[in-house]
């Protein structure tokens, strides 16, 4: 195999995607640890905060799928769990009975601000370890990698259609 095509897996020279994935996993673990006292994960907390803070009159599952970038089965499972633990309830849509809109229970309303505070404090703690220049550069580069990945996915969709 040619040297330039070898997949580098050493700690010294990792693939950028492996680094991004490792950061994502570790940061989510930090958020989940901070939110554990509420019995919620980061993703579940984001659902509660989205429903509680959106300007939309009605929030549907598809809205959460788009916001979180997750597929239908994952969001369905998350919503069922939040309903079972009395954080969310759903109401059948009057215009189309196939759909349900989601609402917060008193239990989630009581913790919503605390969830936002925990997420903000953890995010601030991480950001405060970077200079303003480092943060700006990191944000720029991560957004650039994200756009490259989106463009690649878009090209794949164009080919498959």
Can you walk through the features of this model?
The mean pLDDT is 89. The two termini are 34 Å apart. It contains 6 helices and 3 strands. The radius of gyration is 19 Å and the shape is globular. The longest helix has 29 residues. It has a 3-stranded antiparallel β-sheet with strand order 1-3-2.
Q: Work out the number of β strands.
A: 3
The helix fraction, in percent, is 55-70%
Radius of gyration: 19 Å
Low-confidence stretches: none
> How is the biggest beta sheet arranged?
3 strands, antiparallel
Class of secondary structure makeup: mainly alpha
DSSP helical segment count:
6
Strand proportion: 5-15%
Spatial ordering of strands, largest sheet: 1-3-2
Q: Kindly report the average pLDDT value.
A: 89
Give the N-to-C terminal Cα separation. 34 Å
Tags for this model:
single chain; 161 residues; three-stranded antiparallel sheet; 6 helices; 65% helix; globular
Short description:
It contains six helices and three strands, in the order H-H-E-H-H-E-E-H-H. By secondary structure, the protein is mostly helical.
List the helices and strands and how they pair.
Elements: H1 16-35, H2 42-53, E1 59-60, H3 61-68, H4 72-84, E2 88-92, E3 100-104, H5 106-127, H6 132-160
Helix pairs in contact: 1-5, 2-5, 3-4
